[in-house]
Specification:
Elements lengths: L12 H14 L12 H8 L3 H13 L3 E4 L3 E4 L5 H21 L4 H18 L1
Antiparallel strand pairs: 1-2
Helix pairs in contact: 1-3, 2-3
């Protein structure tokens, strides 16, 4: 999986890494049981600090996307707590939808965007 970090972005580097790993899982580029590179190797590969990679891996573990094994490292392990996932999505979507509402984005535009994104992942999996 190719990780690309935008060093000019306002988004924190660890969040960019986290998001790209989640996108890799969603698009089946990463499968349950796959091992991510070690913290040191990932940091070297993409040219960032090891602590940044460690923070991304920690967030992924807390969110139920990976488990950390002392021998294997970070392993893709999907926690299927749907109720928790839906609650997290609701919290995040509430802010995103509020931003859109403030900028006059219509309900129809939101639905179209959601369908477009959802269909993208459905087609790739």
């Amino acid at each position: 999986m190719l990780i690309e970090i935008d060093f000019q972005s306002d988004e924190a580097i660890y969040m960019q890494l986290r998001n790209q790993i989640i996108m890799g899982i969603a698009t089946a580029m990463l499968q349950e049981g796959d091992t991510l590179p070690s913290v040191r190797q990932m940091a070297d590969d993409i040219g960032i600090n090891m602590h940044t990679v460690n923070k991304a891996y920690t967030v992924l573990r807390q969110e139920g996307f990976v488990t950390i094994d002392r021998r294997k490292g970070a392993v893709i392990t999907l926690n299927t707590d749907k109720a928790r996932t839906l609650a997290e999505m609701k919290d995040q979507l509430s802010v995103i939808l509020a931003k859109g509402w403030c900028k006059n984005v219509t309900r129809e535009e939101v639905h179209q965007l959601v369908d477009e994104i959802y269909n993208k992942y459905s087609a790739e999996c």
